[in-house]
Specification:
By secondary structure, the chain is an alpha/beta fold. Among the domains are: 147 residues, Rossmann fold; 49 residues, no CATH class. It is built from eleven helices and seven strands. Strands 3-2-4-1-5-6-7 form a seven-stranded parallel beta sheet, with helices on both faces. Helix 7 links the parallel strand 5 and strand 6. The chain is globular. The two termini are 35 Å apart. The relative contact order is 0.11. About 3% of the residues have low confidence.
């Protein structure tokens, strides 16, 4: 890698947290050396279990992820958490809320926590999330938990990253109907009624069950409904059991391979678009693009015609 410190990749693979954090920054920000790092690590990917946790705000996702991380650490060598936080409107950086909430696990050398800014991308997922997950996979993290901000129907982007998607809701928020309206329910592999010790948990579980019957499933898999109380840890083992059942089904049914193929397709197409735009700018120059933009803004030419002219140039 051209600008990274010598031996950074080796130190990251050895499990040095500071080296891992620096390597992730190089990849996330697409710094010089990022492509070389991804190329070196990519053959080592495909082994981690990637679990997505999404849902409306106020559902206790961060506390639940904290519990899941601790439970997985009991039988998994290394676990990583990727928390996609809302972006700061001023700096574009993550607010680091999940790092604050998970401070009791900072001393665990087998657990790595990474907060990322959503940067305004749909579904709260930064475009670099899949790259970060791949790096952590290649570095030997057996389980990678991806928590998103849960902002609505564009959360379907999470499917492209996670092998298993857990949709978390709670009684009393009225988000059950909103979830299916937003289309989030369709991406769920496991439904979680968190804070199940609250009044209304039975009604929430029943409503979700009815919604599953009304909606059209993407696959033959029927999402189980698991009740948890993240504050006490109740039901976390049941949730892990449900995730493991989906993992086994996904492997035997071909769903995991199909989902990962779609993720690869999305990433390749995104990189292809970026490369084509860069080459076009190099050929016509930034002045040429700006002239075309100005003509479109002045209504002297339509956007389609402007693109055709740029391509001919």
């Amino acid at each position: 890698m051209t600008t990274a410190a010598p031996g950074l990749l080796e130190r990251a693979r050895a499990g040095e947290k500071r080296a891992v954090a620096r390597l992730l920054s190089v990849v996330e920000n697409d710094e010089p050396g990022a492509a070389e790092a991804v190329s070196a690590l990519y053959p080592l990917t495909g082994h981690a279990q990637i679990v997505g946790v999404t849902g409306p705000p106020g559902g206790g996702k961060s506390t639940l992820v904290n519990r899941l991380a601790g439970a997985y650490r009991e039988h998994t060598g290394r676990v990583a958490v990727v928390a996609v936080d809302p972006s700061s409107p001023f700096t574009g950086g993550a607010l680091l809320g999940d790092r604050i909430r998970m401070r009791d696990r900072f001393l665990d050398e087998g657990l790595f926590i990474r907060s990322m800014a959503s940067r305004g991308h749909s579904g709260g997922l930064a475009r670099a999330t899949s790259r970060i997950v791949n790096v952590l996979d290649a570095l030997g993290y057996g389980v990678v938990l991806v928590e998103t901000v849960g902002v609505g129907q564009e959360e379907v982007a999470l499917v492209r990253v996670a092998d298993t998607v857990c949709l978390v809701t709670v009684p009393g928020l009225g988000d059950d109907i909103q979830a299916i309206k937003a289309g989030v329910l369709e991406i769920a592999d496991v439904l979680v009624v968190n804070k199940a010790d609250r009044p209304g948990a039975d009604e929430t579980a029943r409503d979700l069950s009815q919604m599953l019957k009304l909606g059209k499933s993407r696959t033959e898999w029927v999402p189980p409904i698991v009740r948890t109380s993240a504050s006490t840890g109740e039901g976390v083992d049941l949730l892990i059991g449900a995730i493991e059942k989906h993992r086994a089904w996904s492997a035997t049914s071909g769903e995991r391979e199909r989902r990962r193929r779609e993720a690869a397709r999305a990433e390749v197409e995104q990189l292809l678009r970026e490369a084509l735009v860069r080459r076009l700018r190099d050929r016509v120059g930034s002045d040429g693009v700006e002239r075309a933009v100005a003509r479109v803004a002045d209504r002297s030419i339509d956007p389609y015609a402007a693109v055709e002219e740029l391509l001919r140039e």
